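Tutorial, part two.
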Amino acid sequence: MNVATRFFGFAVAVALVAGVGWRVVKVGMADHLVAGDPHNALAWNPANPSALAAIAKKHLDDGEPAPARDIALTLLQREPANGDGFVVLSDWARTQGEAARTSEWSDIALRYAPQALAPRAWIANEDFVRGNYAAALDGIDKILRVCPRQYEQLFPAMLDFARTPEFADALATKLISGPTWKSGMVTALLSKATPDAMDRVLSTMQRQGALDSATTAQWIDRLAKVGAWGEAYARWVSATNGAHANRLSNVFNGGFESAPTNSGFDWRVGDSAGVVIERAAVSGATGSNAMSLTFLGRRSDSIPLHHWLLLSSGSYRLTFRATAHDLRSDRGVEWVVRCQQSGKELAASERLTGDFQWTSHEVDFEVPDADCQAQDLFLRNAGANGAGKVIRGSISFDDVAIGRTDVTNAPRAEPSH
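Running the prediction step on this input gives:
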């Protein structure tokens, strides 16, 4: 048994057994006393099954397995179908290391007390140890249906074990079936799993069409956060299902002919009180649409419009077209290319302000060999801090593209639509 298996066994068999709930059927004064004083409850009703079960459980908790077993047998003599009696016997056999008896009594306990957690936990653990991951996850599913709060113990252990490819595949299959805890587990994978474990589970789900666009976007963002930019790009391309394969370029959707998705390597448009950003039909645009920004005369410290890039080292030229109407600001707006890792600024276009019809603009820049695997293209308000950030008027952009310039006879970058 490897370390991961032992760890998971401990998590399931101990954490869940510690939190096992005992069924209490309240009948008369005896049942009223069971929870706090089961011995006194027996004085009112010597045959009270809940009191007998509670006393047996207390003996197990106190490290006294023999009286626990004897009381459980007494309980079953009086009520042969009492599930709590078999739950105690299952737990007693587990403490004695008697696997065969534990298995037998656990199966019987679940037949008469299907809500009992401890037998279910033991069976699930045994399935994990044997590598029966699908069966183990079925057991975990039943546990979480009965006691959803057990995710606090189970999710961390499952995330740790997801580093095992076989378990990751089984987990993906289970999540595809849509258990009640799917959303919570996917959230845990996105936030806490290792990149390899997260990728294996989610990629299997993606291939089966079981990931929605929001989850896919979070997955890509997590890959980018840990610096796996190439993998993030590959997953983003895969998520498009080839629909935009003929439009992939250094700046995707540079002509704004499709609505930005705010995810992956497409345009990301945020909210700001000082500017309205929208894809709109603008006279003179190359295609049907352009990206239009209307500034409301308020302070705009940042403009929430940017685009991730994945440029290899070398020489490039950023090109775009723009038109503005009564754009008034301290120093205008400019496009900037910056390294994601180091934050090093690679390029800043000329600053745009005032009134002008569609004009073409370009700026050359170099992507270094180190600390610049991915880049960010964003629009910046170049005004000084404070009042210098106040801006009003409108500007539209079209045909945003980036092409290489260090290839012999390289053509100029074509507009991307």
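The mean pLDDT is 81. In part three we will examine how such features are distributed along the chain.
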